[in-house]
Amino acid sequence: MQEKRPLVWLSAANSNASLTKELEANWDLIRFNLDDPVPTLVSALDNAKVGVLDLSGLPDGDLPGLEHWCEALSLVYWVGIVPHRPITGTRTAQVITSYCSDFHTLPVDYERINTVLGHLWGMASIQGPAHKLTRDDYQALVLEGDSEPIRHTRSLLRRFSTTMEPVLITGESGTGKEAAARFIHAHSSRASGPLITINCAALPDALTQSELFGYEKGAFTHALNARQGRLEQANGGSLVLSGIDELHLEQQSAILRFLQEGQIERIGGSSSIAVDCRIITTTCRPLPDLISTGQFRADVYYRLGGLEVRLPVLKSRFEDIPTLASSLLDLLQQGSEQKHLSNEAIRSLVNHSWPGNFREFQNRLRQGLLLSERPVIEPSDLGLAEAFLDSGAPSNLSLEEFRARAERQALSCSLKLADHNVSKAAKILKISRVSFYRLLDKYNTAAHNRHTQPENYRKGDLS
């Protein structure tokens, strides 16, 4: 009898019992609940290939924070299950687009989902373990590119790395906030010191004190030895509070003294311990908004927000997308047969709105590698056939021609939004007027020469 293949099942408690019973005929189900600790799930998924993410039994508002689950959900190929109701614009939709290679609505057809899981398992087995990005590979890649938004971001991160002031990194889910934190640490004078990351969303209330501050031997039952907390472990290096917006008010109070005095006291201890570390925090929600609703302490915010950088969404970096896609495919295909994107697929990537940002970008390319049974990946393999049909571009463009098309489109759109005022258009694109005129010279020299005044550029044809 053939040995059953392992299948991760991640869901709310007791959902879709009949489907799990059917799947157990062919799969060895490894069950997890959405309330389980993330570290437990991550360690169990290290060698997993495929999984089912069942969101059908969970109200949309109760979904765990995306930053909380990003590490675990990026480790395997997921097939999602969603309720039979519209999910466009919901957090459920964001999870599905960011992490799942396929999804099914209730009621689920067992034969269909079993076939999809088998196909994903087979393709993942052929590719081998090299398809899984290492954390450092992923983080280095998300900050690459030559677009103005990402070059400006890298410039800010480099400048912030030279000071010991706290840095607050904001941005939508999937824009690379943890990557930015590691960039700051790596370019700072503390690069040789420890980099300790605390996932605030995964920090249980009952364990906040012991996890952050540590404890002395005998401080409580089972405290057989003294233990350093995460803050003390970061001494001489950098401390990243990831998802600071997920901390409850009581947890915020627990770290306020440390933020004010730079000292901690272990549970059961009688003396303060000085901790010298650089504080970097990340959030995907505006903290001032949380302060106004009473969900975040203003005094904690003022301690953390000395320097702030907001990461750009992937949609604003469209000229980077062809190069990012090529680099990511190289990483995903290490040790396996090489596939490449068709011109139509590249065009669909450029044309997509990327609500899940770089995390969705990574997932769609992984999906394309799995679903394409040919050396060339097409828009349908990426789940972006509609984006390709909407693009309206010819099919024989080279990489440089795609970049040129994207730059021309950016110039045209910004001029329209600014009523053809060059100064305002340059501000929209977040570039200098000199850079804007350089692009005009590159793509529309004749029109530019006829309209030299920033306020009077109105008739150039950039199409």
Automatic annotation (TrEMBL):
Output the Gene Ontology terms for molecular function: ATP binding; sequence-specific DNA binding
Q: Which PROSITE patterns match?
A: SIGMA54_INTERACT_4
**CDD domains documented for this protein:** AAA
**Matching Pfam families, A to Z?**
AAA_lid_14 (PF25601), HTH_8 (PF02954), Sigma54_activat (PF00158), VpsR (PF20161)
Name the InterPro entries on file: AAA_lid_NorR (IPR058031), Homeodomain-like_sf (IPR009057), HTH_Fis (IPR002197), P-loop_NTPase (IPR027417), Sigma_54_int (IPR002078), VpsR (IPR045343)
What are the residue boundaries of the Sigma-54 factor interaction domain, all occurrences included?
Answer: 143-370
GO biological-process terms attached to the record = regulation of DNA-templated transcription
Q: Where are the transmembrane segments?
A: none
The UniProt keyword set, sorted, is: ATP-binding, Nucleotide-binding, Transcription, Transcription regulation
Specify the protein name. Sigma-54 factor interaction domain-containing protein
